[in-house]
Amino acid sequence: QILQLFHFTMREFVAPFKPEELLAHPGDERLWASDLPSVDEWGEHQQSKALDGLVGRLLKTKGKDLAEDKTFSLLFALLQGWPRLEESTKPRIADLLVDTSRRLLVEVNNINKATTKQKDRPAQEWRTVAQVLVFFLAWTAERLLSAAETANLAPRRGKARGRGNGQAQDEAANAEAQEARRTSERLICAVLGELCYLLGKGSLPWLWLGDPVAWQAAAQSISSSGFLILDNVEALKHRESRHFSLRCIAEPLLQEGHQKSTLLVATVSKLMYALRGSEAGAAFVADALLLAHTTPLPRLFLVELPGHCNAGELSSQGAFQRSIAHFLVAVSERLPHIVLANIAVLLPLLDVDCYPLRSAIVESMGALLAAEGRKLPSGAHCDVQAANAEDAPAQDEEVAPQEQELQEVPKRSNAPVAYFSIAPATKKDLLETLLTRSLDKSVWVRYRTLQTLTTLATKSRTGALPREAWSRVLEVATRRMQDSASMSRKASMQLTRALIEFHPYGPALQGSGDERVKAKKLLDEVQVRLRQLQNEEAEEAEQTLADQAAAREEGGEAQPKRRRMKNKTVTDESVAMDIANALQEEDQCDDPEAERERKRAALFRMRDCYVQRLHFVELIDSAESRLRALLASRTNTDVSEAIHVVVELRLKGVPAATRAFDQVLGLVWSRHAPIKDAAVDAFNKMHLDGHDAASAVESLLEMYAQGFSGGTWTYTHLASVQELIQLSAERSFLDVKKVLPQLLLAIEGPHGLMALRALTAIATAAPKEVAAQLFQLSLLLGPKGTALGTTVVEVLERLQLTCELLKCVFTKHKGPLPAESRRHLWMLLQHTICSLVEAFARETVPSVWFSCAQAAMDLTFEIALCPEADDPMQQAPEKLWEQILCRMMMTVNGNRGFALGNGSEDEECAEEMGDQWEQVNASRLGCIVFVAGHLAIQTLIYLEALQSALKRKRMADEDARMEQQREAKKLKQQAQPKKKGKKGAAAPAQEEEDDAGAEVSMGMAGQEEREAEAFAEVAEYGLLFGASSLLDRAKPLIFACLLDSKLKREPLLRRLGAITLCKYMTVSKKFCEANLQLLFSILFPKDKDAPVLPDEETADTIRSGNSLHDICLRQSLLVAVGDLLFRHPNAVEPWTNKLYATLGQTQTKEDDREANDLRLTALLVLTHLVLNDMMKPRAVLLVRALWLTACTHEPTARVARILFQELSKRSTNVIYNLLPEMIARIPEHESSAGRVEGGAEARVQFVMQFVDKEKHIEGLVEKLAIRLEQAANTCGGKAEQGQATQATQGEASQTQGTPTKSPMRRRSKGPEESAEKRFAKATVSALSHAIGGMNYTDRCILRLHDVVVVRKAIHTALSFHEVSRECILSIVEKCRKAKAGPKAGDGGAPVEEVPAAAAAGEAPAGGGGGSKGISGAAAGALDAIEAVVVGLAKGKEDEADQVTAAAGEAAKVAKPKGKAAAKRAASVEVIDDNPGFEEAPAKAKGKGKGRGRGAAGKAAPAKGKKRRAVGADDDEDADEDYEP
Question: CA dihedral defined by 1419, 1425, 1427, 1429, rounded to 10 degrees?
């Protein structure tokens, strides 16, 4: 019995730090791996047999045999040889241990139920078994996770060569791998689950209370096992495995009755290490803190975290930065009460120079503010409330499923439900800190701050953003709209949009009537009500005292007086309603004193609300100008977000958004698809979204009515709205089939004109559907139509819009119109022509007659081009309108007894017949002139269309003939048998066939040339100079309208005569050359220096025929001159200088609206010609436009900026080629620029932002240096005669014979000498700022060094002009600062931060040199440049030369080594003595392929340079496109 008892005595077990420690024999009688079997040599059968025996022993002893030497050694050997075991053995080992753990739990529960005397010895033995089991389970988990990681990283085996076999084997391998992965996940979950159960499940906590040391070892082992999953990325993604790993970490900390200080320290250290690991470590750590939130672990970890967030450590570990940032955000969302309690520890992190960390703190504060009212995890303590759901605050967010699962860890049945809340003072401090971060130096922090505020604004139900803070937040948002980074501007507009959408100040911001008027009335009424309450309280107090005195006299008690509530009347109905609604609840109270207190509190709240509301609306009004500026931004995101904000303002009814929304309409013409789509979406949201057909039509018609009644719409707005309606129909935002009947019904109503415009827009998108409604339209607007109107003006307006509608249907319809629709169309057109003739027969013709006649004539010529036109009048539209014009002439002739000229007399005939024409009504003469001009231009268009149609028909016939020949040739070859013979026997026959085809083609080409000449002859001479031409007979009347002193008094005749003259000039080049002098004399009258007339005299001056003050006429002529420039460029080119002069200061008042409109029209015409390649940009044009970019007239300045922005996008480098000439001419046109913002320096800075390429900057350094030195010589009197004009070589050809004579181009004596010097000084300043305003890379620095130091090209400017020295030294300072690279503590800002600033107009620091610093050669060059400038400033040129030589030696020493570096240095150091005017280099001789090495001792030309001949026009006429 003694031996048997000794045999079953269980030895103690001490968990080792590593399993290998158990291989050594311990000094005491502890359990160790004494006799390990050689499992490596066992096969699968032997391993299975050993496991079977082990299972039998464990089942017999209920798991107790696990701590026996033999079983322990066997399991130890199996786990030690795990990688070499069979795959079928590994799951059996894990299942064996899991089953043993479950049996252990049953036995411990049974022991715990026994008496006290029976518990001691079995508890000690089973505790030892539990220790061994924890050791083996932890080792098994490590083996399983490492094996799974190895399987994930193992490469796939090679595929079989056979296609079918390979695919089948791949599918089988994939299925096998998936099954193995599922098995591995199941085993990992089982092992980790049993590990976490071994401490806290059932009676196991009682078991561990008897041995604290054993519990500490087991807890450490289990906690360490939970961190093993961090090394396996795939296992970390598995939900159950991750959950059990977190439980292993948290379960030891949740046990009560044990000392856990060592475990807490170890867990904090391991969690901190987890943050430095994979990207998923942040969420894992946050979830671990959530599970252990009732323990000191979260606070200890948050306190420990700032110690690891120093700048030095963060800068070297980018992944650690991001991980900490993600953790802070995650833990703030999961445990807001703990983060808030320790916020004082985290706020100092805002001072760390690491923008990801600051962004995370900002987002964490936002999460705290947004979490107010959320349900906290079980066991948390923060503002404990009742557990009833009715008492719980409203929650905006539901708890995520995984977070809810994590919160289900040990709950207390009697634990109350807690909700997160923040004290008002703490909330205010957090919000103030958050708003301060909107001024952070990092754009990413500012962006995150604005995003966080946007999130808070959207959580209106929980009140995350207090009502009193909305105005402050809106002020921050509107200021950030001017941020230098585009992403911050985008976030600020998103914040503004959210604030407007979710504002707490009532349903509509504008209220009833004007917002300020209503707010003022309401505040006054509130003050009156407060005084009334105060008076009532005083009266009641006096009455109470009187009653008490009377009661004392009578010896009785006074009865309280009941007060009867009466109805109240106020003067303003809306204000009274608001106050009555606010006090409705208080009126039901019976206690007078309590009632007054509640009323007083309600009135105070109402007063504060309306004060804040008024401030909120004022901030919105002030933001309107910024929104309009953002709508014209160069950044697409700015425009798109601004559109969304404007739409939200319009939906809220804010009047400030009216002008901005009108600007949004014009963005439909943008070339950028995102902006165009945003404009269409805005229009849809504003007028179509959520509307049925009737309400959508009503909204569109109301929009038209408001635009016309407000007087703010122009023809541009009308065209934009039509384009928006068309795009909405194309994108199915508008149901055309349902909308068309509603629009047809609206034609008969008061908004009939608007309905016709909307129909025209829909016809462009859906012509087929509109064509089907032409019958209904003919009933409404045809002869005896019900919707024609009552007056002549109404009839003509509707018929004009009808013709435009019919033209859209006819031109946009795919294929020919149906015969029925074509018949109705022609009937409506005939009715329109008859109405025009009837209106002309009246004594006075309305002004709408002209637009209606133009629409009818356009439609007539469109129908004539249709092949289905069968009516003679349809086939010959020019004959139809000639007959109409002839009848009109005959009507005038019959009434007044005179005849029109035949065209040969021209101006003489016009002067003689002026007295007779004066007797005719001016409007009828104007009709004749208008029809003649428009008929001429339409006939020209018709001839060109006929020529194009004839050419297309000829090409189609040619293609058909060639196809027939090919088919015949193919059939001939197939029918003719192949014969053997000589090789070239069939060549002569083939050549004959080819010659015949070539002759036919040449004949067709000759015929095409003859047809072109015939059409040109008809257009040039037949229309206006033909013997029987009716248009020729109208010439005297046209000239009389312009030259006759009596006729030109009428503005209508004068304007129509000038426009018709331009149309005639467009038709015929001969007529254009003969009348250009007349046209420009009208456009630029001789009395331009006459004094400005008062406003009351302007109308009389226009009637007298002075075209100087007829701004409408001059604007029309400017547009016409643009057409002539495109039609006859050679004839109009000599007159372009006069056209450029209109961009200068006008001869009227600078603030005159008409003068500004004239200049804007000229700029629009020239911009259109330049951007559409109809006209070549000239330096004088761009200089004048450059000054206009700072014009006080905003529309003019915006068009000028658009001109430069679009030119900078051209691949021809227009701005670069003309830049030296432009900079030199900037002072020349300063006097004629008028009133602008900023001087020449600001204009230089504006234009230099469009030069950003290194090759361009390098070339400009040379060109600007030459001009700078010549200007300095001129200023200092050192220039010889004609020397100053060397840099402007070829400029005379640019101005086409009329060059502008600037002071730089001449040498004068006497008083003019000072003016020349002043101009030269201004030129030196402009050129110096141009050189200093560029961004220099290493190559550009070396080029500047060559100019300043080596060749001394600008020594005169540096010696005598301080501005030149300051600009050069600013280059040196800027390059040195920018090339130093980013600070080490900022964690390496992302690449997008610098381009974001550059997009807003700020030049990136350093000019793109990068963060690696400058090269040694560039640094030496900067030192030499600085030394030369300083030496020349002191007047010591010799000293400067010595410093230059020393710097040159230093630069040689600093040259990089290596072939690649030497090649780069050679490309940089090649300097041309005369850049831009190089001679062609001699052909290099060498051996080998490619370019060769050339002759020895001869330097190869710089790579990529474009060599040009001496004397070439370097600045303007040639585009220097360097190859990179």
Answer: -150
Both tokens of residue 715? 């023809």
Going by C-alpha positions, the residue among 475, 765, 753, 756 that lies closest to residue 623 is: 475
Number of Cβ within a 10 Å radius of residue 121: 11
User: How would you write 216-262 as a 3-class SS string?
Assistant: HHHHHHHHHHHHHHHHCHHHHHCHHHHHHHHHHHHHHHHCCCCCCHH
The label of the residue with tokens 């922005």 reads 1205
Q: Taking a C-beta distance cutoff of 8 angstroms, is the pair 1056, 1064 a contact?
A: no
Find residue 1191's DSSP bridge partners. Answer: 1236
- What does the H/E/C string look like for 955-1003? HHHHHHHHHHHHHHHHHHHHHCCCCCCCCCCCHHHHHHHHHHHHHHHHH
**What pLDDT score was predicted for residue 1175?**
86
Q: For residues 358 and 1385, is the Cβ–Cβ distance under 8 A? A: no
Number of H helices, E strands in the chain: 68, 0
The Cα–Cα gap between 634 and 339 comes to 42
What phi and psi, each to the nearest 5 degrees, are found at residue 418? -110, 145
What span, in angstroms and rounded, lies between the C-alpha atoms of 347 and 708?
A: 57
pLDDT value at 264 more than 90: yes
Given a contact cutoff of 8 angstroms between Cβ atoms, the answer to whether 1138 and 1298 are in contact is no
What is residue 364's predicted lDDT score, i.e. its pLDDT? Answer: 93
More confident residue, 607 or 1265: 1265
Residue 418 in 3-state DSSP? Answer: strand
Q: Which amino acid is at 111?
A: I
The letter for the amino acid at 542 is: E
Q: Note the Cα 995 to chain centre separation in Å.
A: 61
Phi, psi of 115 (to 5 degrees): -75, 170
Owner of token pair 């007894």: 897
Beta bridge partners of 384: 418
Q: Tokens for 40?
A: 């490596």
Element (H, E) at 292: none
Q: Classify the phi-psi angles of 814: left when phi > 0, otherwise alpha if psi is within -120 to 50, otherwise beta.
A: beta
Question: How many Cβ atoms sit within 10 Å of the Cβ of residue 1461?
Answer: 12
Residue 942: which of 1019, 842, 1037 has the closest Cα?
1019
Handedness of CA 1197, 1200, 1205, 1208 (dihedral sign): negative
Residue of 1311, 1317, 1228 whose CA lies nearest to 1279: 1317
- Distant-in-sequence contacts of 294-297, Cβ < 8 A, 24+ apart: 294/254, 294/379, 294/380, 295/250, 295/253, 295/254, 295/260, 295/264, 296/264, 297/253, 297/264, 297/267, 297/268
Residue 439 banded pLDDT, cuts 50, 70, 90: very high
Which residue stretches of 813-921 are H helix?
819-841, 848-864, 872-875, 877-896, 907-912, 914-917
**Encoded amino acid at 197, one letter:** Y
Distance CA 87, CA 84 (A): 9
SS3 1236: strand
* Rounded distance between C-alpha atoms, residue 1252 and residue 1406, angstroms: 12
Query: What is d(CA 706, CA 712) in angstroms, rounded to the nearest whole number?
Result: 9
Nearest partner of 736 among 708, 773, 785, judged by Cα: 773
| Single-letter residue type at 1145 | Q
Distance of alpha carbon 1174 from alpha carbon 1413, whole angstroms: 46
DSSP state of 570: -
- CA pair distance 924, 946, nearest whole angstrom: 32
pLDDT tens string 826-835: 999 999 999 9
| Residue at token pair 């004239």 | 1158
Which single residue is written with the structure tokens 């000829």?
Answer: 954
Question: In Å, what is the CA distance from 400 to each residue of 403, 405, 685, 1376?
Answer: 5, 9, 33, 52
H or E segment to which residue 1474 belongs: none
Q: Count of CB atoms within 10 A of residue 997's CB?
A: 13
Is the pLDDT at 385 greater than 80? The verdict is: no
The neighbour count for residue 668, using CB atoms within 10 Å, is: 22
